[in-house]
Design a protein that fits this description.
single chain; 346 residues; alpha+beta; BirA Bifunctional Protein, domain 2; seven-stranded mixed β-sheet; three-stranded antiparallel β-sheet; binds 3,4-dihydroxyphenylalanine
């Protein structure tokens, strides 16, 4: 009796191993081999007939359990194989109906415009409004109203492209100061304006000079505007442009439309002031001109310099961009070479 038990258990063990076949046909063979009419299970059932009732009951239960386990194993394996077959078919029959996308060539914002946008956003965040002036400007706004009368020697540095005896391509963005002041009254203070734009002047054309370039003018008029306000603004601007560690240095200078006037240097971002090729070993780099607006400019546009004051500053966009991005030749900006421009894609 117990010998038959053992045989059945061995039978179950081998059946469970054989069931792990990899194709449907041999799985069916396994099923027939163990569960078919001539298989060992049927044999065992036949053998039961001659047993004592007690033993028969016990043996019958065992045969049923083994039969059920083999049948379940066959069933499970069948499901697994069917699913594997479906997965295989799906993988084989996959049809990629997508086309490779076309490369879209997006342009990029010109580095000079990026600098303009950046500086404009900086001044806007401090409450300045952006203005524009005409590129063909009158002698009157470009010079006269900025305290540069006809015979003023400082005109020589800028005299350039005249369209007719009274109009020229503007030599700087400062003319927007006079235009703005003229259109406002003291009731509209404070005046806080930034003006980016192209300017033109007789100049060398070399690695750092061009007869056409861009400037950004910024100015403010209100009560009690002093050098301290100018200095704070310049400090913030320098740090915004070149990093939080930058220091500024003011050197006395001359502009007809400001008094006092200063040239503004920023500590060299490359060597941190120690001296290097970028700052020509001085530790400082000149970035712009500025000053307190000359009383004559205020008076000519109808403001009383006893009551109001202001500061103005003007910077060259190319120069800032060259320093910021380490560009060694100003002409790169103007020739539309994609190898250059693509480097400024954001
Ligand atoms: N207009 C000057 C130039 O083109 C730059 C400048 C200097 C602008 C001082 C200003 C200033 O507003 O205050 O060289």
């Amino acid at each position: 009796m117990s010998e038959q038990h053992t045989l059945l258990e061995e039978l179950l063990a081998t059946a469970l191993v054989e069931v792990q076949t990899d194709d449907l046909k041999s799985l069916n063979d396994v099923r027939v081999k163990y569960l078919g009419k001539k298989g060992p299970i049927q044999e065992a059932m036949k053998a039961m007939k001659g047993m004592e009732p007690e033993a028969r009951k016990e043996f019958g239960q065992l045969v049923n359990t083994v039969k059920g386990q083999i049948a379940a194993a066959v069933e499970n394996r069948l499901l697994e194989l069917e699913q594997a077959a479906i997965a295989q078919r799906l993988a084989n029959e996959t049809l990629d109906i997508t086309l490779p996308a076309q490369n879209l060539h997006t342009g990029s914002i010109h580095p000079l415009q990026q600098v303009v946008d950046d500086i404009t956003a900086f001044f806007r965040s401090m409450g300045y409004e952006a203005a524009e002036g005409p590129e063909v400007e009158t002698d009157f706004y470009n010079f006269e109203m900025l305290n540069l009368p006809h015979d003023h020697p400082a005109r020589d540095m800028q005299d350039s492209f005249y369209v007719d005896p009274h109009r020229l391509l503007r030599t700087h963005t400062s003319g927007v100061q006079a235009r703005t002041f003229e259109s406002r009254t003291e009731a509209q203070l404070p005046i806080k304006v930034i003006c980016p734009g192209k300017v033109y002047r007789r100049d060398d054309d070399d690695a750092t000079h061009s007869h056409q370039f861009m400037q950004i003018e910024a100015f403010i008029v209100d009560e009690n505007i002093s050098m301290a306000n100018l200095k704070g603004t310049l400090q913030a601007l320098a740090r915004h442009l070149f990093g939080a560690d930058r220091e500024i240095r003011l050197r006395p200078s001359f502009f007809p439309f400001t008094e006092p006037s200063v040239e503004v240097d920023v500590s060299c971002a490359k060597c941190n002031g120690a001296g290097c090729n970028v700052c020509k070993q001085t530790g400082w780099i000149e970035i712009l001109g500025a000053g307190l607006i000359h009383p004559n400019v205020l008076t000519m546009t109808g403001f009383d310099p006893q009551k109001v004051s202001g500061f103005a500053l003007g910077m060259g966009v190319e120069r800032i961009a060259m320093l910021k991005y380490g560009i060694e030749d100003i002409r790169h900006f103007y020739v539309n070479d994609l190898r250059f421009l693509n480097q400024f894609k954001r």
